[in-house]
Specification:
Elements: E1 6-13, H1 20-23, H2 44-54, E2 58-63, E3 69-76
Antiparallel strand pairs: 1-3, 2-3
């Protein structure tokens, strides 16, 4: 998918940093980056990634160089 064929959105959360081990499991069901410190069941990223893939797109998470986590959602243009 080239840039002209895709729509890209960058989302930034400067409160969370994932370790290398956790980075591999972030989209697994019930994964929580900060258990006990945040609300939720740990299904949000799993659902978001599944929706992106169902529409031919991707959801990629990366630690940002400064601090925090960046998510890149890419979907094909209609």
């Amino acid at each position: 998918m080239t840039a002209s064929e895709a729509e890209r959105r960058d989302i930034i959360d400067d409160r969370i940093v994932l370790t290398a081990k956790r980075h591999r499991t972030e989209a697994e069901p019930y994964f929580r980056a900060q258990p006990g410190k945040t609300h939720g069941s740990g299904l949000g990223l799993t659902i978001a990634k599944a929706i992106a893939m169902a529409h031919g797109g991707t959801l990629v998470l990366r630690n940002r160089p400064t601090r925090g986590l960046g998510a890149v959602l890419t979907l094909p243009r209609a």
